[in-house]
Write a structure and sequence with these properties.
Helix content: 25-40%
Strand content: 15-25%
CATH class of the largest domain: Alpha Beta
Structural class: alpha/beta
Order of helices and strands: EHEHEEHEEHEHEHEEEHEHH
Distance between the termini: 25 Å
Bound molecules: 2'-monophosphoadenosine-5'-diphosphate
Shape: globular
Largest sheet: 6 strands, mixed
Number of domains: 2
Length: 273
């Protein structure tokens, strides 16, 4: 029987996860399908009930349910419990197990380039769900410290508390306070949604240089203003689609036990196959 997978969240109509996973199913000849299912905030419990009633084999979880979903799990893996959020769930006859592939998915492209994280200084823009997994990733790889810059200072403060709890030095500032300080950091990561709508870069890129690594987790458009300007300044660039593909590949491995054809997924994402 065909196995069904899904991504749940809201908004969900622009999600590229169905393209990625369905392309991989086709390439590997798997009798599986992957759908996008809109589950609005406040309707998670009913959404899960529906998923169970169609005997969903597994699902991804995105905004705004990544944290809320934890309550509905029967078991959690270690990354999932450290981060306090899940993006990948398996369903074994109604028993839901949660995983988090965002953290390792974020780290993969850095490791692929053999960039050293240990003892580095990090500037993280944003303090939402994605930023949380990123903080956990830098803590795991023993970065020296993280400056968390967010529009809403309270949310940055809360993320600093989390950073301290998992053993990494951190401080909170507002995004305006970044000013021209970008050159003080080895890694500059955008985990806000700024760029999605072709906005100007979230910070001034004047001091970004060839020693900077600029990682923008916004993947659509691929070349955000932050990336365009940083590239001009000679920085090492890591694209948001790389994290998207890595977390998807890791979810694929959890569900199907096999490595995903990365190039097929990449083509589905960038070539619109
Ligand atoms: P995600 O799960 O993708 O991290 P999120 O939890 O909604 O999504 O977080 C979105 C992040 O983008 C937040 O850091 C948010 O800042 P606030 O905490 O101040 O809301 C940031 N963000 C979104 N739109 C922004 C804007 N126009 N200017 C500055 N920051 C913005």
């Amino acid at each position: 029987m065909t196995k069904t997978y899904a991504v749940i969240g809201d908004p969900i109509d622009h999600s590229l996860s169905p393209n990625i996973h369905n392309a991989a199913f086709k390439e590997l000849g798997l009798d599986c399908t992957y759908i996008a299912y809109r589950v609005p905030k406040g309707e998670l419990e009913a959404g899960i009930k529906s998923l169970k009633s169609i005997n969903i084999a597994g699902f991804n979880v995105t905004i705004p349910h990544k944290i809320e979903m934890i309550k509905h799990l029967d078991s959690l893996d270690e990354d999932c419990s450290v981060i306090g959020a899940t993006n990948t769930v398996t369903n074994d006859n109604g028993k839901l197990s949660g995983y988090n592939t965002d953290m390792e998915g974020f780290l993969d492209p850095i490791k692929k380039r053999e960039l050293a994280i240990k003892d580095s200084k990090v500037l993280l823009l944003g303090a939402g769900g994605a930023a949380r997994a990123i903080v956990a990733g830098f803590a795991k790889e023993k970065a020296h410290n993280i400056t968390i810059a967010n529009r809403t200072k309270e949310k940055a403060n809360a993320l600093v508390q989390f950073a301290h709890k998992i053993g990494i030095e951190a401080k909170a500032i507002t995004i305006n306070e970044v000013a021209e300080s970008a050159s003080e950091y080895s890694f500059i990561v955008n985990a806000t949604s700024i760029g999605l709508k072709n906005e100007p870069a979230p910070i001034s890129t004047k001091s970004i240089n060839e020693k900077s690594v600029v990682y923008d987790i916004v993947y659509m458009p691929m070349n955000t203003e932050l990336i365009k300007q940083s590239k001009k300044n000679g920085a090492t660039i890591i694209y948001g689609y790389e994290m998207l593909l890595s977390q998807a590949a890791r979810a694929f491995k959890i569900w199907h036990g096999i490595d995903v054809p990365y190039e097929t997924m990449k083509k589905a994402l960038l070539g619109g196959v």
